[in-house]
Design a protein that fits this description.
Oligomer: heterodimer
Structural class of chain A: mainly alpha
Order of helices and strands of chain B: EHHHHHE
Distance between the termini of chain A: 21 Å
Strand content of chain A: under 5%
Number of strands of chain A: 0
Shape of chain B: globular
Strand order of the largest sheet of chain B: 1-2
Largest interface: A-B, 21 and 20 residues
Number of helices of chain B: 5
Helix content of chain A: over 70%
Order of helices and strands of chain A: HHHHHHH
Largest sheet of chain B: 2 strands, antiparallel
Shape of chain A: globular
Strand content of chain B: 5-15%
Radius of gyration of chain B: 11 Å
Largest sheet of chain A: none
Helix content of chain B: 40-55%
Number of strands of chain B: 2
Number of helices of chain A: 7
Chain lengths: ~210, ~70
C-alpha cells in the first residue's frame, strides 16, 4: 500500500495550502476592515485548515523502522482538522455580527455537513483496511483511544462547570445570547473543543510511538 | 505509551523463524503492524491474550517471549 506521500502530491498539497492561506488572509482583512467578526473567524478557519493539513502531512511521514501511520492515526488527524473548522464556524456564529441572518444559517448547515461527514471518513478508513485485509483497529488502538476519550471527558466537565459558573456569576453575559443559533453554538462549542483536545492527544500518542 | 516494565524477544524470535516480517506476525496475531513495532520498541505492554497469541505464533511459551524487567 502506498503510505508515504509522493513528491508530486506533496507539491499539490503545498499549493492548496498556500491558496487556503491566501483566501484566509483576504477574508480576514475584509472582516477586520468591515468589523464583521464572522469573517474574521472565517479567515482564521482557512488558516487553521491549511496549518492542520501541513502538520498532518508532516506527522504521517513514516517514522523509525519505516513505521507508517495507522488508519486510526490518520482518522485522528482528520477529526482534528474538521473539529477545528467546526469550532471556527461556531465561534463565528456565537460572537459574530450575523444574528439570525441567512449567512449564519448557511454556516450552521456547513457545520452540520462537517459533522455528518465524520462517520463517512471513519467508514472510508475501515473500507480501505478491509480492502487490504488489514486489521482496522486492535487493542493498542483502543488503549490510545481510551486515553484521548479520558482527556475529552475531563475537558468537557471543566467546560460545563465554567459555563454553569458564568451563568451564575455573570447572568447578563449569558442572557445577552438570545438568538437560538447562538445558544446552540454556545452549547456545542465545549463538546467540539473537548473532542478536538481528545483527538489531539490521540494523534500525539501515535506520533510519539513512531519516533 | 512510553516505557514498559516488560521486555521481549519478539525481534530475535522473528529472525529465528525464517526472518518473519512484522506484517506476517501482525496478521498471525490479528493486530496492526504498528502494534508489533511498538511492542518490539517496548513502548507498549500487550494484553495477556495478545501475549499468548504472539507466543503461539512462534510455537513457544509466553515466558520465552516476555520477561519482567527487574
Amino acid at each position: 500500500m502506498e503510505i508515504a506521500m509522493k513528491r508530486s502530491e506533496r507539491r499539490w498539497l503545498w499549493i492548496v495550502c498556500a491558496l487556503l492561506a491566501l483566501i484566509g488572509g483576504g477574508v480576514l482583512i475584509v472582516g477586520v476592515m468591515e468589523h464583521r467578526v464572522h469573517l474574521v473567524f472565517g479567515g482564521v478557519m482557512f488558516w487553521v485548515l491549511a496549518a492542520v493539513a501541513l502538520l498532518h502531512e508532516r506527522a504521517l511521514r513514516p517514522g523509525r523502522d519505516d513505521n507508517p501511520a495507522s488508519n486510526a492515526e490518520k482518522a485522528a488527524w482528520s477529526m482534528i482538522g474538521m473539529g477545528l473548522a467546526a469550532i471556527m464556524v461556531l465561534g463565528g456564529v456565537l460572537l459574530g455580527s450575523m444574528r439570525g441572518s441567512m449567512a449564519s444559517y448557511l454556516l450552521f448547515f456547513a457545520y452540520a455537513l462537517i459533522v455528518a461527514f465524520f462517520p463517512v471518513y471513519r467508514r472510508r478508513f475501515a473500507d480501505e483496511s478491509r480492502r487490504y485485509r488489514e486489521v482496522a483497529e486492535d487493542e493498542r488502538d483502543r488503549v490510545i483511544r481510551a486515553q484521548g476519550d479520558y482527556l475529552s471527558k475531563r475537558m468537557l466537565e471543566i467546560a460545563l462547570v465554567v459555563l454553569a459558573c458564568a451563568w451564575v456569576i455573570a447572568p447578563r453575559f449569558i442572557q445577552a445570547i438570545s438568538d437560538p443559533l447562538q445558544v446552540a453554538a454556545l452549547l456545542l462549542l465545549p463538546v467540539l473543543a473537548a473532542n478536538v483536545a481528545g483527538e489531539a492527544r490521540i494523534a500525539r500518542l501515535y506520533w510519539r510511538d513512531r519516533q | 505509551m512510553t516505557g514498559t516494565p516488560i521486555s521481549n524477544d519478539i525481534r530475535r524470535l522473528r529472525f529465528a523463524h525464517g526472518e518473519m516480517t512484522q506484517q506476517a506476525l501482525a496478521d498471525a496475531c490479528g493486530v496492526t503492524r504498528q502494534t508489533i513495532i511498538a511492542l518490539e520498541a517496548e513502548r507498549y505492554a500487550p494484553s495477556l491474550e495478545l501475549a499468548f497469541r504472539i507466543a503461539r505464533a512462534f510455537g513457544v511459551g509466553v515466558e520465552e517471549v516476555f520477561n519482567w524487567k527487574a
